[in-house]
């Protein structure tokens, strides 16, 4: 275990109506409201952000969005800017593998979004991770390193503390096949952390939180979070129920 404060973030993806979001948040609060040693973040769909903000007001739960556009405003039908989000939430997930695979997100657009988010005062959770094919071809380290370098290009070291990285191997997301704790930690400790130290300096790079995501459950969370460079998790499926999400939060204690 490190001295970094762990984060457990729930990525709800395209799930929950406003009413369901309120109920889920109330359920989570009942179980985790006393916990200060873990930073707890929920990332509902855009339309639930206002309700999430209301439900979490004055609590230990923070709110994040799942995506954003890099431009401040204009003719971008269907898009949402950082300036619109900053009144509703503190965090924003950027470059999730589903955005990369299904909606044309690239390291270049990720980088533009990272800059726009930081400029607006949002804290990005930048997702990186290799596909099964890349993994099997032995390209994990090269792919992940490239994603971190390109995604963070030009980011000032003074912003390091506002950035979170999530290592999410694509083959582990939603499959029930989580990476092994040692395997995930090897990527986070030996590939991602050294790049962060190089970009932002020893102290800042060591202080940044690197999450693991991909089939985290109450059963495997504690073992994953016990690794030296796994500073919490980005949780998909298991964040949609208050009991499983709360159990994962407690596993980070
Ligand atoms: P999962 O999703 O926990 O359902 O595997 C994780 C994610 O996509 O962030």
The bound ligands are: 2-phosphoglycolic acid
CATH architecture assignment: Alpha-Beta Barrel
CATH C-level label: Alpha Beta
Helix/strand-derived category reads alpha/beta
Low-confidence stretches: none
Helix amount: 40-55%
Topology pattern, helix = H, strand = E: EHEHEHEHHEHHEHHEHEH
The CATH topology is TIM Barrel
Strand order of the largest sheet: 1-2-3-4-5-6-7-8
How widely separated are the two ends? 10 Å
Beta-strand portion reads: 15-25%
Task: Give the SSE map.
Elements lengths: L6 E5 L6 H15 L6 E5 L5 H8 L4 E5 L16 H4 L5 E4 L2 H6 L4 H14 L2 E6 L3 H5 L3 H12 L12 E4 L13 H20 L1 H6 L1 E5 L7 H5 L6 E4 L6 H10 L2
Parallel strand pairs: 1-2, 1-8, 2-3, 3-4, 4-5, 5-6, 6-7, 7-8
Helix pairs in contact: 1-2, 1-11, 7-8
What would you say this structure looks like, in words?
With 253 residues, the protein is an alpha/beta fold. The protein has a single domain (7-251), classed as TIM Barrel, CATH 3.20.20.70. It is built from eleven helices and eight strands. The protein has helices at residues 18-32, 49-56, 82-85, 97-102, 107-120, 132-136, 140-151, 181-200, 202-207, 221-225, 242-251, and strands at residues 7-11, 39-43, 61-65, 91-94, 123-128, 164-167, 209-213, 232-235. An eight-stranded parallel β-barrel has the order 1-2-3-4-5-6-7-8, surrounded by five helices. β1, α1 (18-32) and β2 (39-43) form a beta-alpha-beta unit. The longest helix is centred in the C-terminal third of the chain and has 20 residues, at 181-200. It binds 2-phosphoglycolic acid. 2-phosphoglycolic acid binds at residues 11, 168, 173-174, 213-216, 234-238.
